[in-house]
Structure formats: C-alpha cells, structure tokens
Amino acid sequence: MILLIAFLFIFVAFQGAQQIGMSTGTETYVDKDTKVYQDYENIYLRYLGAHSIVIMISDEDIKSPEVLKAIDRLDQQVSDIPGVVETLHIADAVKTANYMQTGKMQVPENRNDIVVPENGETDLLLPDNTHTLFLIQTSGNTPDVRLEKILGETEKSVLYADFPPATSVVVTGEEAFSIEMQNAIRQAMPPLIGASALLIIIALYLTFRGVRWRVLPIFIVGIGIIYTFGAMGYIGIPMTMVSMAAFPILIGLGIDYMIQFHNRLEEEFSSQDSEKAAVVETVKHTAPAILTAYSISALGFVSLLTSSVPMIRDFGKMLFIGTFLCYIAAQFIGVPAIYLLARKHKKRLSGASEGNDTNSNSGKPTVIERLLDKTTVFTVNHPVPILIIAGMLCIFGLYADQSVPVQTDEKEFVPQDMDALIHIDNFYKITERGESVYLVIQTGDNTDPGLIRWMDSFSEYIVDSHSNVYGSTSIVSAVKSLNSGSIPDTNSEIAKIYDTIPQNQKASYLHGNNLLMMELSVNNDLDGEGLGNLIDYIQEDIAWYQSPPDTEITITGSNVVFTAIIGALTTGRLLMTLLGVIMIFIGLLFVYRDWLKALVPVVTMFMVIGWAGGVMYYSGLSYSPMTATLGAMILGIGTEYAIHIMERYYEEKEKGATSIEAMRQASTKIGSAIVTSGLTTIFGFSALIVSPFLINQNFGLITVMIVFLALISSFFVFPATLILLEKIRDRRKGSHDI
User: Fold this and answer.
1) I want to staple 270 with a disulfide (CB 3.0 to 4.6 A). Which of 114, 134, 359, 383 is the partner?
2) C-beta atoms surrounding 23 within 10 Å
C-alpha cells in the first residue's frame, strides 16, 4: 500500500514539475528591493536602456545593390516581429540619400549611384568597407523569454532575406550570446546527468558488495529527485544556473540515506529471525541517525537563506526540501521495497538447504572493510600528529581561499571554440567595442547649459584619468556638432537643438525633461574585480567632481550588476559558511546535550572547508555562481558522514565495546556504506569533468573534490578528534577505561 501511494505521488510530482520556470534575469543575481536593481531595471532599462540583437554582415563589396536590397528585405521581416522597437541599418540611409536625389525611396540599381551619408550613425553601422551592422532594438525591460523568441525569429528572417551566396551573415551581440550560452548549457546537462547516472550504477555494482539488489539505491534516489522537482513547481522555486549545483548534493545525500538503510537491513537479515524483525531493528537504530544527520545538514542549508543573491537562496530552499524528500523516499519507499524483495527471495529459497540464508554476504570482511579497519587503528593510535597536520593544512587553505578568483564573465563559462563566442569576439574586434558603464543623470531640467558643460568636462576628465576608459558618448556630442562645436548659453537654444536630433539617435541618451545618460566605454580585458575597482574609482570621481545642484548621478548597467554580486560570492560566501557551521554546532548541542558530540562533527567538516580552499587555489579553479555553493556541499555531505559514524560508534559503546573497538566497528560497518555512497557520487559526477563547458567542468571537479576530502576527513580527522577529546574528558573525570 505504501509503495502504491508513493507511485501515485510520482504522477502528482510530474504535474508540479511542469510548473517550474527558468529564471535567468537580473532578479536572480540581485534583490528587486536593492538600489542596484532599482537603478538598473527601473531607471536605466525602463527609460534609457535597450536590448540589441546584432546582425553582422560581411562581404567584399558591402555597399553593393544586392547586399543592400537583402538588408532592406531583412528589415521588412524583422520589423514585424512582436517586441522589436526599432531597426538600424545602412540601407535606410542609402534609400534616404537616393530619395533626396531621385525622389525614389529605394536602393539604387546601379552601384555607382549608391551614396552612404557620413555621420555618427553610419560610422557606427559601417565600421569598415567589408562589414556592416544591422541593429535590432527592443525595450530594455523585455523579458528573457521574449528576447529568445525575437532571436529565433531573427535567425529565420536572415534565411528568408536571400543574401548573395558570398555574403556572410551572423546573428550576435550580448543578448544573443547569453541566450545561446544558456541554451547550450541546458542542452549539455541532460546527457551529462545521464552519463553520471550510468557511472553511479556501475560504482554501486562494483563497490556495494555483500548485499543484494545493489543498484536499487539509485532508483530510489531518482524518485526522491522527481518529488523535489514537483515540490519546486508547486512552491514556486525557479530553475536557475545555481540550481544545477543541487543535484550532486541530492544524489550524494540521497544515495547515502538509501545505502545506510540498505546496508543495515542486510546486516539485520542475517541476524534476525524474520524480515519484519530486521526492518524494525533497522528503523529503530538507523532512521533516527539519518533523520538527525538530515536535520543538522538542513541547518547548514538554512544558512544559504541569508545570501544577498536570490538564486543562492532558492538553491538553499531546494536543498532543504530535496534532501528531506530523498530521506522520505529512502525510508518509506526503499525500506518497504527491500522488505518485499527479501520476502520473495526467502520464499524462493524455502525448502532448500540454504533455508535461513537470506543474505549473500558470507560474513567475510570486504577489501574496503579491511582497509578501513587498518586506517582506524592507525588514526586512533596517532591522533595528535594527524590533527596537527590536518589543522595546519586547514589554516593554510582558509588563507589561500581569499585569493581564489571569482568568475562572473559568461564568456569564460563556454568552450572557447563555441560559434556564439567566436561571433561576438569578431564583433568586438571589428567594431573595436568594449564593455560599457552608464551614468544616469537625474535633473530638474536637462536643457541646463551648466549641466551640459559639466557632462562635457567630466567625460574628458574620466577618459584622461583612467587608462581603461577609452571613450565617452552622450547627448553632448550631438549638441556640440549642431552648434559649431560649442555648447549654447541658454536653455531654449539647447531645447531647439534637441528637437532637431532624430528620435532614434537621442532616445538612448535623453528621456523627457529630467533624464540624461552618459556611456563610458571600457576596455573589455578587465576581469570582474578590475571592473569593480574601476566603478569604485568613478564613484569617487563623481563625488569629487562636483555636479550642478539638484542633480543625482547613478552608475548602472549590466556590468555594475555583475560586479555587485562578486562581494556576495566572496565575503558573503564565507559568512554563509561560517554561519552554517555555527548553526550546525548549536543544532548538535541541542540534539545530543553533549559538547563533545556537537564539536567533533563540526571540527571534521571545518577541516574540509579549509582544505577545499587550498585545493581550489592550487588547482587554479575559480568561484562562479554555480560553484559558489561549495560551503553548502561541504556542510551537507561532511556532516552526514560524520554523524553516521558517530551514531554507530556510541551504539557499539552502549553494547559494552571499548572506545577503540567501537570505532573499529563503526568505521568498518557504517564506513563501508559511506565509502560506497562517496564513491558513487565521485564516479557519477566525474562525467561532468569532460564537459566542454568550463562551468560544468569546475562544477564536476569541485563535487568530486569535496566528496573525496569529506571521506578523508571522516576516516582520519573524525576518529582522531573523537578519541583524543574523549581521552581528555575521561582523564578529567578520573576514568581510564580506554
């Protein structure tokens, strides 16, 4: 009956999973109520900003009638796409020039009759004699879903425009690159996860010795993950780039839950008279330990809710719910399933000489159990040197972690031979464009001559003062060019000049009567930290280079948003990890009412946190929005392993075993199951290491790394710490039973 109900819940979960949305916008990086978000979304994008899809057209004779007519046909199709606000291309300028001469608004048939007017707009659209740009403008607050549809329709329109065979036409730009990158990562993940699942099955078959139905845990975990998807849909947790980092934790912890139940069931089947008694004994001892381990791990995940990055908070919610559902699947689906399988197996053997032999395990220690026993004997006999070495490596790792770079540049996440990356690099190279930082100026009157003069002198000062700023663009250039190179002395003169500037030319720099924008062009070879420092310097310049009264100047743009999250992925990440450690210590203290039991698991995983930082530093890895969850993975997986060993250790001591004997029993019995779950996670996510996407490679490497380090700490640091602290406490009490 329980399995039938669980099966029905799978259908319920599928319904919920269909409601999961993909979130990739600015709101996944910064909160909507923060100043950074308000400045970018509600001031810049709403009034002045725009999204641009760029079509780069290359031809030996870019001004030929055939190419220009194809551009004109492309314009007719693209302009009808819903969401497209404006298009900019040289065919319009050529048609206008021809109209002035012949009265015909069309591209001339004769090459010699084609005239391209020379002005700022055509200079932008025609960077050289073999390339031209076709710009598609959409509203700055166009959602990502709509942008993706516009991009798809644009690519179809290029095919229907019938360009000459020798003409190269490429759809590119920041928006196009970002969308194509996200699609490529999403498409690459399913086969990688599939390969991971296959490797996990192989690992279970090879390492989970001495038990029957050894690959069953992966299927039970799969059900738990299906439940998690359903919960995400019903609760409204979106899928983000960081959400993918939840899968190794869910699989790692879910596998561990199931293997612990499975391993203990097989152990009890061989010593109990009936399957029911074996189940009761298993649940009596194992379920509380697993539930405690889940509860403590969940406290570590709760610390993620304090992050200033929304998608990391969503990641924390997903882990909190997902690990609980994996636990539910292990106890209420996995245990009944093994119970039924064991009963059927016993019936098949009834009447045979095997009779009571329901377990394939002959009782002979496995290779893993023998190795763990030797490791335990070594660690409990040499606790001080082990802890000194582990502690020194931890301190050094924590120090080195401060120097691990943070990567927020999406171009570094993809294969360097990816078409979308090559296209946008060529676009930047041909047009000599770089990154942009925007200054939005709010004023009572944007025709104030004093304000225009300040903008002119401030832009010159910024370009002269910062070598990484190579240009500045604003409405000032147009005002000066239309007034013989000078700025008028009165508001009315400036207002008249504004009226003569074409709307499409001034829309990006002027809005209404109280908004102006200045675009600062920045070298695109700056990394995230360098760009953040430059933004800080510009902010200081604004404060020092006093602007006219009643003006408010805001630095904004997508680059400003991304640099804002660097702090959240560095100092914020460390604070979240430390908060998680403190919460776990308090939780363990509350559960066990024993400072030693609370301290030992914390010491065990704190060592892993330090080691991981050192490994990342020396391996040249960097933190990204996906790998910034390293602390959560360590807290979740490391705590789980330590608590399982500790629970079995004290269970054996209650039966009368000495400390060393109890630790040897815990390490071999529980430890072998932990090694199995750890190796299955390592096997599974090693598939990501061969991914062509750097963000997936780093994700796989970090997952493998922390699981391996967690295993090392569990079997070296944990026994040494527990035995040493118990000796100290027992000596204080006058006990020498060890």
Assistant:
1) 359
2) 17
HSE-up of 610 (CA within 13 Å, CB side)?
18
Are 589 and 295 contacting, i.e. CB atoms less than 8 angstroms apart? Answer: no
The amino acid at residue 103 is: G
623 DSSP assignment: B
| 0.90 surpassed by pTM | no
C-beta atoms surrounding 129 within 10 Å: 11
| pLDDT band, residue 356 (cuts 50/70/90) | very low
For residue 650, give the 3-state DSSP assignment. Answer: helix
Give the integer Cα–Cα distance in Å for 573 and 406: 11
Residue 73 exposed, middle or buried by CB count within 10 Å (0-12, 13-18, 19+): middle
* Cβ contacts of 420 within 8 Å, gap of 6 or more: 172, 176, 177, 180, 181, 184, 414
Question: Per residue in 199-235, pLDDT tens?
Answer: 888 888 887 777 788 889 989 999 999 999 999 999 9
Helix (H) or strand (E) holding 410: none
Quote the tokens at residue 712.
Answer: 């090392």
* Tokens, residue 580: 């998680």
pLDDT at 738 over 50: no
Residues 588, 297 contacting (CB under 8 angstroms): no
DSSP 222: H
Closest CA to 148 of 135, 138, 133, 158: 138
- Cβ contact 478:501 at 8 Å: yes
Among 177, 148, 197, residue whose Cα is nearest residue 54 = 177
Q: What is the mean pLDDT of the chain?
A: 84
d(CA 641, CA 544): 56
For the cut 70, the answer to whether the pLDDT of residue 163 exceeds it is: yes
The tens digit of pLDDT for each residue in 553-568 reads 888 877 777 776 666 6
**Of 426, 416, 223, nearest to 329 (Cα)?**
223
Task: Encode pLDDT of 587-596 as tens digits.
Answer: 999 988 899 9
Picking from 412, 396, 403, the residue whose alpha carbon sits closest to that of residue 620 is 403
CA distances from 174 to 50, 104, 147, 436 (A): 12, 36, 12, 12
Please say whether the beta carbons of 509 and 475 come within 8 A.
Answer: yes
**CB atoms near residue 288 (< 10 Å):** 12
Q: Which helix (H) or strand (E) holds 517?
A: strand 515-522
* 300/294 Cα distance (integer angstroms): 10
